[in-house]
Amino acid sequence: MPAQNTQFLNSIPVARYAVERAPTRIQHLMLWSFQGVAGRELLYAQVPQLVASGQVPPCDAVPDRSSVFSQATFGMTYLNTRVRVCHANQDTFRTPITPEAAEYPLMIRQLLYGFSERLDAAPSPANPLALRNYIEPDRIVNLAGGALNFHCLGDAWHRVDANDGRPTMIMSATPALATYELLCRMSGFEPPKVDFMWYDPVRRRMTPVKVTAFNGTPWLVNDRMEGKTNPAAGAQRIYFMVLGDDGSSGPTRGVTGIVPQELLHSMFVKRVVPAAYNIEAGIGDPIAADDVFLGWPVGTAVGSPAAISLLQNFSIAGPCPTITPA
After folding, report:
1. Which of 16, 122, 189, 317 is 20 to 30 A away from residue 234, measured at CA?
2. Is 310 within 8 Å of 139 (Cβ atoms)?
3. Residue 18 resides in a domain
4. What is the span of the domain harbouring residue 203?
5. CATH number, domain containing residue 125
């Protein structure tokens, strides 16, 4: 269906861009790291846990400590969205902004939503974005429907061993974060904060702020996760991650997004084609419109399985009641 009510693009005064009335919090993308990949997949050579060196008396044999290598493969999926722009609308309402230009930033947001939602999706080879594809069973803490508590939060946090056991981001939906903040206050203290940078619309630049943290790790919201709209305990998940991959030989190969190398600095691919029409259905004339496609080849990579852990299946604080005025 073509863009509707395009006459509002000509309203005076008019905003430079269309404004989303109900945006979703995707704060995690403020820290998310991407790396370019030559080809369709990223390959990591991995070794099991190393055996510590031993003490050998002079002139004695040294035990063989050769590593056993394996290969981990991380592929990409293709996210795509489409809008239809009528030629009449595009030609008529071209001041101060055309329908195609108005739709473009909204399409980018749609792709970001699709990416963020799939990070928390069920593990499946069909969805290489899902983080749960890459979390080992011994790095999962399952509360079996019980209440969120500090001990289990600490247990899950400490199951990240990469980066010398220092996760760099915690990600959950808002209800899980709100439950943690309530747990802090019910225990007699305000939720801890750490320094962070946030965009300030007044100053129009990034500004130092404080953000809620656990064990000094910033806790950011991804409200495209299932736990935002599903209050069931089984839908609640909190991810603990080392983000980024510095390419070194040290234990600092964390969670990243992957995109084709040539798209690393311009990840979204836009194509405009004449609107499709169904000749087989007897419609022989083309539609006076353009279909605008925006695509994003993207994947998730986990350099070391020790870089991510999960706390799941816990009860959250109920929502505050809504009081209707008499």
Report:
1. 189
2. yes
3. no
4. 26-42+72-312
5. 3.90.1690
